[in-house]
Amino acid sequence: MIDLWLVLCYNLVMTKPIRTHWHQLLGKLFELVLTSLGIEVHVDFNVMSKPPRADLLMLRRDPAQLVWTLEQLARLPDGIRDSLASHILIELKYTEPVTADVLEKVHGYDIFYRLTHELKKEEVATFILSSHTTKKELLAEYGYQEVTELPGVYRSRYPMVNRVVVILLNELRDVPHNAFVKCFASRPIEKKKAFQALAKMGWLILTNSLWMFLAGLRRAMLGKGDEEMKVITPDDVMALGKRMQEALLESMTTEEILSRFTTNEILSRYAPEEVLSQYTPKEVLSQFTSKEVLSQFTPKEVLSQFTPKEVLSQFTPEEVLSWYKPEEVLSRYKLQLSQREQQAKCQEVLKVLIRTLQLRFQVAPSYFDNRLQDLSLEILEQLNEVAVTANTMPEFEARLNELTAVAQRNSEKITT
Prior knowledge:
This protein is of the alpha/beta class. It has 3 domains: 22-206, 3-Layer(aba) Sandwich (Trna Endonuclease, Chain: A, domain 1); 280-323, no CATH class; 331-415, no CATH class. The protein contains 22 helices and 7 strands. The termini are far apart.
């Protein structure tokens, strides 16, 4: 008996129908569509600080942002896109119709959420997205009327439920911004039109993740067989979409894949050095004239790649000199000539100074080499006078130290 009881329990568990959390699939779709536009998407959150927990979605806009952006409006359906609230609560009814209990329950969610989070009425808007067409008698009983020029959007004039807007997905307009939610409509024709509208958007707005999710969702909802029952979670939908994408890409040639993109879109995926690494410098430069290449650089940048000898070797001396006036050529050498003359004169004065020191104080010629070699002509001339007037060698050295110290200070001031 015990073994039989265990088998019966196992069979009961295994045959229990698996519930697909459709609001989680809608939440994943909203996450892929809206998160990049600054709208937070929350699934299965607590309405109050303590349970009960509701199968709700929440879209939250930055309160500092007073209205939806154009990019956000392009992805939000009728009804929701017309609300100015920063907190949007959404109850999706996919497998069951909207009933009186549902209307009252969702109205309670609206109240509890506002009280728990201390929000004003205008900060919260609550919606029921119904995949099935709700009975018009029920909507009329609760004071719901279709909003003018917005088919499928119903608002109530009764205080008990007027904060809850009912959106019938089958009746929404066939416009691009409704396509994302109309994927969850119950009528196959409406689903197909929604997926077709999204396909027309193509690569312009569909990221790779969103494309895979929509592909998996379409296969789950419109495919043949029992695929819908096998796809339970958003991860399952994404995995199915990924398999479809891989199968599609494997069946396409490289040319067919690349044909879906412009040259700029393809190249934008790579850094310039990655593109250029596929070609030799000669192949790259062959696409441009010499003028086009050189126009990208200043003359200084071009010449910096060569030594002066390499540059001048391309011209005869006559060609080089023909570009300048005689005085311009000579002016390039005046400073060098002057420096050479200065250095020669320093050497003559230095020789006289060393000879004088040898005669007066009997010092070796190399005694002052390290201290006298780099002195200026002006200091050397002063030291020549000191060498003649000084009575002792220490007196000469003191004057030498004084002059070199002054020269050092002057040099530091100029540097500063």
